Amino acid sequence: MSGEEMKACLETLRWGQSDLARLLGIDEAKARRMARGQARIPDRLASWLRELTREVAAVYARYPPPRVG
Q1: What Å distances lie between residue 32 and 39, 65, 66, CA to CA?
Q2: What does the pLDDT look like over 14-65, one tens digit per residue?
Q3: DSSP letters spanning the chain
Q4: How far is CA 31 from CA 1, 15, 64, 65, 67, in A?
Q5: For position 55, which CATH number holds?
Q6: Hey, CA dihedral for 15, 20, 36, 32, is it positive or negative?
Q7: Within a 10 A sphere around the Cβ of 23, how many other Cβ atoms?
């Protein structure tokens, strides 16, 4: 997974890099390095992010937000 793909996943999940760092128990700096392509994204993390992103995107598609205005 590239840093750009990781950022796209986080955007779909509506998470920031700090949210990911907190969930994983890692330094925010490490999450930022991964997002910039300066640190390797472990395969297990990449697989998890991809699968979670697919699932969340499917939920958003089935349940779009209501119009309230």
Answers
A1: 9, 30, 34
A2: 999 999 999 999 999 999 999 999 999 999 999 999 999 999 999 999 999 9
A3: --HHHHHHHHHHHT--HHHHHHHHT--HHHHHHHHTTSSPPPHHHHHHHHHHHHHHHHHHHHSPPPP--
A4: 13, 12, 29, 30, 35
A5: 1.10.260
A6: positive
A7: 10
Domain that holds residue 55: 3-62
From 58, 65, 67, 47, select the one nearest 12 (Cα to Cα): 58
Task: Supply the pLDDT for residue 69.
Answer: 84
Judge whether 68 lies within some domain. Answer: no
